[in-house]
Amino acid sequence: MKRILVTGAVGQIGSELTMELRHRYGNDSVVAGVNRTQPTGELKESGPFETVDCTDIKQVEHAVKKYSIDCMYHLAAILSVVAEAKPMPAWNVNMNGLRNVLEVAREYTCAVFTPSSIGVFGPGTPLDNTPQDTVQRPNTMYGVTKMSGELLCDYYHKRFGIDTRGLRYPGIISCVTLPGGGTTDYAVEMFYKAIEKKAYTCTLKAGTFLDMMYMPDAIKSAIEVMEADPARLKHRNAFNVTAMSFDPEFLAAEIKKHIPDFMLNYEVDAVKQAIADSWPNNMDDSCAREEWDWSPDYNLSAMVKDMLEKLGEKLGK
Ligand code: AKB
To answer: What residues does ligand 1 touch, defined as CB less than 6 Å away?
Structure first.
């Protein structure tokens, strides 16, 4: 039986992934690792939670020992925009935090899932149909830490036999927990503003295409890659995965099918635009499809319909 620790369990992905893992493996088998923000509601009531600041190896080790953990989903991280504003804290959390998790995994023999990102790509990378194995010279602190994290995870697998696996996530869209500090956050904000104000001012230019994914697919992919037959895996850290690629205009046009008077304006943020311009327009995720049968359930129109229904309910509109 799996005994799982999720770090960053109150974050955008963590809050939903923890609940799905509890549903699959049993409430008591999945520990929500929290740091500054305490869990609330179902996340708090449905299973154990523990303070785990990943930059403190003793806290990681304490949780792993206390709950006999054999698998960690290490989601705690600082995202791209915040990492540009605070590069050293980003290095500390994204690199030292990961090293602590891997060291504890080595000591106590745990499998480790680490989310990587489209941020691992940069100048020199082919931006269309970006291959699984290609140039990775990111020019953001977030990208540097995610790229180095991929290498470190592969190193722990090859050198120490730790079962490390990861995904290069695109922008993730959900209506449960807001993302914080990412370049792709605009896509989530657009839904909230479309419902609340019928207008949104976008910080990225028209024509900025980025890979995106709806949260149910993000959760499914994390669980499936960890359940995959290791004999089939030629890659580990980390797989390109995507579900759709759009720019602000495409997303707005799809929202307008449901909210016809929705208006999209632009006020471009130079820092966010530079980050987005260094990332792929669309990735090739054929290795994930071949090695562990990855296939997303939601395309743009299915995601927009579901998001607007669920978010409308949540916001009482
Ligand atoms: C970000 O925008 O920083 C993240 C990511 C794509 O990794 N959502």
So the answer is: 79-80, 117-119, 142, 169-171, 182-184
- pLDDT per residue, tens digit, the chain (317 aa), is 799 999 999 999 999 999 999 999 999 999 999 998 899 999 999 999 999 999 999 999 999 999 999 999 999 999 999 999 999 999 999 999 999 999 999 999 999 999 999 999 999 999 999 999 999 999 999 999 999 999 999 999 999 999 999 999 999 999 999 988 999 999 999 999 999 999 999 999 999 999 999 999 999 999 999 999 999 999 999 999 999 999 999 999 999 999 999 999 999 999 999 999 999 999 999 999 999 999 999 999 999 999 999 999 999 98
| Residue numbers of the domain that contains 190 | 173-211+244-282+297-315
Residue 231 sits in the same domain as residue 301 = no
- Residue 232, domain CATH: 3.40.50.720
Residue 11 C-alpha to ligand 1 middle, in angstroms? Answer: 13
CA of 108 relative to ligand 1 center, distance in Å? 30
Indicate whether 304 and 231 sit together in one domain.
no
- Overall number of domains in the chain: 2
Catalytically annotated residue among 67, 73, 108, 142: 142
Q: Which atom of ligand 1 is nearest to the CA of 179?
A: 8
- 2 within 8 A of 31, measured Cβ to Cβ: no
What secondary structure letter does DSSP report for 95? Answer: I
Rounded distance from Cα 311 to ligand 1 centre (Å): 21
- Longest alpha-carbon distance in the chain: 57
* 33: number of Cβ within 10 Å: 32
Contact 114, 153 (CB under 8 A): yes
Does residue 108 carry a catalytic annotation?
no
Establish if 218 belongs to a structural domain.
yes
Whether 287 is in a domain gets the answer no
